[in-house]
C-alpha cells in the first residue's frame, strides 16, 4: 500500500507492510521505478530503501554510511518512542550498531568461533543433530495423519540447537529464546509488547551470562565474559548482552528461513530437485540460489548516511534510516538477467547475491548457515525423496513483518 502524498524525491513513498506478506510483487513494482525508494516505516517515520543490486552493493560499502544510532536523526530528535517495533535493530549495543574501531573490536571477539576451520569441525555434530530431527519429523507426521510442520520440527531446532550449544545456553531456554526472537524480528509488535519483549530477552540473557560467570565452561559466552573481564574495557555488560541478542537471533532466524524457503522452492520446482538428486548440481547450489531468489531476510534495518548522499540518482538525506532491500536485490533483472524471477540452481554465472550482507558487516555466521542448510536439505530429501507440501503455496501464512521473509509454518508430507 502506498501513501497518497509524494515527496521531494519525486516518488510516492511506499508504506512498509508491518503485517508481512510476500515481498516480491511489491519489490518488482518499486524496482521498475528505480533502485532507491522512499518508504514510510512504523510510526510514520520517513525512511528509504535501497533495492537495486548494484546500488545496494555500493551503499553497503560507502564510507559515508554508518550504523551507529547517534546518526539516526529521528532518534536523536526524540521522535522514536520506546515501544517502536524496530528500536532493537537501531539501538541494541553490539557489532550491528557499531562503526570503525568499535565494530572491529566487537567482531574480533566472536569471529574465532566462525572461521572455516571451526565451522568444519562442527559438521559431525550438525549431521548427528539433523539425523535425530529427521526421526522426530517422521514421528510428528505419524502422529498428525501423515502431515508435520517442517519449520517447527526440523528447520527451527537445527540452527537454534547448534547456536545455543556454541554459546553454552541450556536447551531448557531454547523455546523461550525463539519466541522472544520472533517478536523482535516482527514489525507489527504492539509498543507495550515490544518493551516487555526486549526487557525479558535482556533479563534472560543476563541471567544466563551471570550463571556462566559463576561457573565458566568451554563455550562462547564464557569466552566473551573472559574477554570482558580482561582489563575491564574490551566488552561492556550492555555490549555482552547485545552481542548475545544478535547471535541468538541471527544465529537461527536466518537459517530457519533459508531451509524453509529452499524446501518450498524445491517442492515447487521438482525439475530442479531432480537435478541435484541426480548429481547434476550440488546442494550448495540450492542454498545459493535460494539465498538469491527468496532471501531469508527481506528488508534489513538500518544504515544512515552521515551526509546527504546521492545513490543511483536519488538523494538520501543525512540521518535517514535506510533499509537494505535484500529480497529485491536478489531478483533485480539488471544484475541477474531477464529471468531473475526464475528459480534455477544451474544459473551461470553462479548466483551472485547480497543476502548475507556485503562489506565490513558481512554476516559472520555465513559459513555456518551455509553448512547447516546444505546438510539439512540433503539429509531431508535423501530420507524423504517424495516429500511435498501439504498445502498449496498460496495458503501458507507469511511471516509477520517486513524483515524476515518466509512462512510461519510449513506443513509437509514426509513420505519415505
Automatic annotation (TrEMBL):
Residues 1-20 are annotated as: Disordered. InterPro entries: Cyt_P450 (IPR001128), Cyt_P450_B (IPR002397), Cyt_P450_sf (IPR036396). SUPFAM superfamilies: Cytochrome P450 (SSF48264). Belongs to the cytochrome P450 family. This is Cytochrome P450. The lineage of its organism: Bacteria, Bacillati, Actinomycetota, Actinomycetes, Kitasatosporales.
Amino acid at each position: 500500500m502506498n501513501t497518497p502524498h509524494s515527496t521531494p524525491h519525486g516518488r510516492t513513498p511506499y508504506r512498509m507492510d508491518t503485517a508481512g506478506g510476500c515481498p516480491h510483487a511489491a519489490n518488482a513494482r518499486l524496482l521498475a521505478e528505480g533502485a532507491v525508494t522512499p518508504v514510510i516505516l512504523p510510526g510514520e517515520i520517513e525512511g528509504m530503501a535501497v533495492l537495486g543490486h548494484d546500488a545496494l552493493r555500493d551503499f553497503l560499502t560507502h564510507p559515508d554510511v554508518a550504523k551507529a544510532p547517534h546518526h539516526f536523526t529521528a532518534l536523536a530528535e526524540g521522535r522514536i518512542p520506546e515501544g517502536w517495533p524496530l528500536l532493537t535493530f537501531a539501538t541494541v549495543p553490539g557489532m550491528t550498531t557499531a562503526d570503525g574501531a568499535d565494530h572491529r573490536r566487537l567482531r574480533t571477539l566472536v569471529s574465532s568461533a566462525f572461521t572455516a576451520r571451526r565451522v568444519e569441525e562442527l559438521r559431525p555434530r550438525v549431521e548427528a543433530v539433523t539425523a535425530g530431527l529427521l526421526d522426530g519429523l517422521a514421528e510428528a507426521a505419524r502422529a498428525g495423519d501423515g502431515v508435520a510442520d517442517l519449520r517447527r520440527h526440523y528447520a527451527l531446532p537445527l540452527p537454534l540447537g547448534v547456536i545455543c550449544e556454541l554459546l553454552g545456553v541450556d536447551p531448557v531456554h531454547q523455546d523461550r529464546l525463539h519466541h522472544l526472537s520472533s517478536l523482535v524480528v516482527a514489525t507489527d509488535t504492539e509498543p507495550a509488547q515490544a518493551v516487555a519483549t526486549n526487557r525479558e530477552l535482556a533479563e534472560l540473557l543476563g541471567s544466563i551470562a551471570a550463571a556462566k560467570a559463576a561457573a565458566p565452561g568451554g563455550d562462547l559466552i564464557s569466552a566473551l565474559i573472559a574477554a570482558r573481564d580482561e582489563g575491564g574495557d574490551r566488552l561492556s555488560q550492555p555490549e555482552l548482552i547485545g552481542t548475545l541478542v544478535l547471535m541468538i537471533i541471527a544465529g537461527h532466524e536466518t537459517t530457519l528461513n533459508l531451509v524453509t524457503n529452499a524446501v518450498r522452492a524445491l517442492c515447487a520446482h521438482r525439475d530442479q530437485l531432480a537435478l541435484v538428486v541426480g548429481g547434476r548440481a550440488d546442494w550448495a547450489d540450492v542454498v545459493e540460489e535460494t539465498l538469491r531468489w527468496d532471501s531469508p531476510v527481506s528488508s534489513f534495518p538500518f544504515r544512515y548516511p552521515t551526509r546527504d548522499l546521492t545513490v543511483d540518482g536519488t538523494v538520501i538525506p543525512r540521518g535517514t534510516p535506510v533499509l537494505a532491500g535484500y529480497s529485491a536485490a536478489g531478483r533485480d533483472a539488471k544484475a541477474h538477467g531477464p529471468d531473475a524471477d526464475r528459480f534455477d540452481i544451474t544459473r551461470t554465472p553462479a548466483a551472485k547475491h547480497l543476502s548475507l550482507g556485503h562489506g565490513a558487516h558481512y554476516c559472520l555466521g555465513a559459513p555456518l548457515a551455509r553448512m547447516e542448510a546444505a546438510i539439512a536439505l540433503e539429509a531431508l530429501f535423501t530420507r524423504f525423496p517424495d516429500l511435498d507440501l501439504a498445502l498449496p503455496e498460496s495458503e501458507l501464512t507469511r511471516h509477520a513483518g517486513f524483515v524476515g521473509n518466509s512462512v510461519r509454518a510449513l506443513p509437509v508430507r514426509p513420505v519415505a
